[in-house]
Amino acid sequence: DLDPLAVAGHDVAYDVTFSAINVSDGSLDIDFIKSVDNASVAGIRIVGPASAKPEEQTGGGEPTTDASTSCQNSSALMACLDFEDGTTSDFSGASGALSVVDGEEAFSGTHALKVTGQGFIERPNFPGTHWGRMMYKNTGKPNFISNYSHTTLLRGEAGSAQFRFIDTVAAPNGSGDEGFYQHLYNTEPNDLSLEGPYNNQFNGEWVCIEWSMDVAKQEFRLFKNGLEIALANGGVASNATNLTKAKRFDGAELPMTPVPNTLDTLKIGMQNYQGHNYEYFIDDVAIGAERLTCSFTE
User: What CA–CA distance (Å, rounded) separates 37 from 40?
Assistant: First the structure.
């Protein structure tokens, strides 16, 4: 029990901090049970790993990929791209703004996919339910961002619908989140999102992104450097990809298109919807039926 009057006195603010709270089901329940009179609560602040600044989100060190999921041992995987043979394997379309390069930037080995403009490599008829992992590194961005800058690195498509599994939005100059970007899940039609916090910076370091899509549950999860990103729609925590009244950025409430059992195509590359210029390197992409994980070295 807590008696604010006895602890702090009359008309005096009193802060209480509870730490090491483990949330295992995606929901934090807070109950207040009245004991004596009517104490008031002026505010609640919840801080977790997903709202830490980038330097606190390292998972304990530098990310590495698990050798057991390398492309030399990929028979159990749906897709594996380490680019070490100089190709994009069974993904087609590498040309122009997308090319496999040797000796420039690579997370492992010496090869990576360099993306200097709009374009994707793609593979048809991909399972909607899957776990994935991608290493990416940003090496070029606009000097000035005038409005929110939306970039997709990996998406699925089915008919006219798009399911943007690895998606980012950079905050504009002059905003409260200037210099930061968020990870999110975004879908078309209706431009609806499950958004993470603006707590990432373009600092030229490799980032390990993991994602999972469960079609039966219509549930999407996203991880950065081994830590799960808390996603929300319209400020309400959610991992659901079939919300019937999802809030859009303009406040409109519209239905999300559920992810199908089979995607027409899965695409890896880059599209920025405001025409802004970015440069990325992508490496060690692995997709399978189970979580592939990022491990870490000090």
Answer: 10
Residue whose C-alpha is closest to residue 239's, from 190, 189, 290, 184: 184
**Is the sign of the CA dihedral 161, 212, 78, 97 positive or negative?**
positive
Q: Kindly provide the b/e burial profile for residues 258-282, where b requires at least 16 CB atoms within 10 angstroms of the residue's own CB.
A: bbeeebebbbbbbbbeeebebbbbb
Tokens of 277: 């210029």
Q: What confidence tens digit (pLDDT) does each residue in 102-121 have?
A: 999 999 999 999 999 999 99
Quick one: DSSP state of residue 11? T
- Which H or E run includes 6? helix 4-8
Total count of residues recorded for the chain? 298
Instruction: Give yes or no for a contact between 153 and 119, defined as CB atoms under 8 angstroms apart.
Output: no
Which pairing describes strands 262-272 and 149-158: parallel, antiparallel, or unpaired?
A: antiparallel
- The per-residue pLDDT for 68 is 43
Q: What pTM was computed for the model?
A: 0.78
Cα–Cα–Cα angle for 192, 196, 199, rounded to 5 degrees? 140
Residue entry with tokens 């599994």? 165
Rounded to whole angstroms, the Cα distance separating 135 from 281 reads 8
CA torsion angle for 120, 123, 124, 125 (degrees, to 10)?
Answer: -120
The whole-angstrom separation of Cα 181 and Cα 199 is 6
- Which regions in the chain score pLDDT beneath 50? 49-58, 60, 67-69, 297-298
